Amino acid sequence: MQKITGIKSVDFKVVASGHGVVNWNGPTELVTEIEGKSKPINNHSMPKLRGYTNIKGHWDDGNPKYKEPQNINFKETPLYISTNCIRHHLFREEFVDLQSPEIVHNMDKLLCSLTGLIRGYVIPKTENKRTSPLLLTDFQDQLCKGNYDQMGRSGSKEKGKTKSGTEKSTSMFSKTTFGDTEYIGYGSISIEQLQFISLSEDYSRCAMRIDSNKDGENLAKKITDFIKTLACSDDVNAYISRKLCKKRFDI
């Protein structure tokens, strides 16, 4: 592989604006006031908050003391979108089932995709893997416009039943919601990691196995053709090379 002599990575900053919560954390056990008394609840929907814990201490018997959802400081524990969520949405239009038995016989198609080249993957059956050249941080909200919302769900006992067959009744639940949001995140693409695809266990993290030079040359041609569909220039070439009798693949 030719040594990188120019730009080794592309670093970037992302500012993303929106409205509402993108990345929920699920039901969270808290304490709230019901009929003038503090009572524990476990049907409060909480978004992902950086550094937040719902426990503020413990009673003498060791049981945890829970916080009240109305008292969250969103500047100290800001809303964020996790890296996994960002990656999911970036590549969701190109879904690849890595558990499928057919994937083993179509590894060349996997490498000729944004998932194969940029997102990275691990095939559980064969343990083939490719490390993603794309690094991302979590996206953190800057506006801190959080809200505590108490809600009610009502249903007529005469008109319907729940999935379990019981009659519907009025129930209360709550959410920590957000209005306008503005996230800041950072990312980096490693040029060296992007250009190198290992095809040998000698280099670890073998992306796929090839049996001959001819198979490697065919794979190099497929990847070259795929990259040309993405690039604005035809001056693109992927090739297979050997060094010390080890197979490797350079872009």
Written description of the protein model:
- By secondary structure, the chain is of the alpha+beta class.
- The chain is built from five helices and 16 strands.
- It is 17% helix and 36% strand.
- Strands 1, 6, 9, 10 and 13 form a five-stranded antiparallel beta sheet that branches. A four-stranded mixed beta sheet has the order 2-3-12-11, with no helix packed on it.
- A hairpin with a 2-residue loop joins β2 and β3 (37-47).
- The longest helix is centred in the last third of the chain and has 18 residues, at 213-230.
- It is elongated.
Portion in strands = 35-45%
Distance, first to last CA: 9 Å
Number of strands: 16
Structural class: alpha+beta
- Give the biggest sheet: 5 strands, antiparallel
Detail the topology: elements first, then pairings.
Elements: E1 9-19, E2 24-34, E3 37-47, E4 55-58, E5 64-66, E6 80-81, H1 83-90, H2 107-111, H3 114-119, E7 121-122, E8 129-130, E9 134-136, E10 139-141, E11 146-153, E12 171-178, E13 180-190, H4 191-195, E14 196-197, H5 213-230, E15 239-243, E16 246-250
Parallel strand pairs: 3-12
Antiparallel strand pairs: 1-13, 2-3, 4-5, 6-10, 7-8, 9-13, 10-13, 11-12, 14-16, 15-16
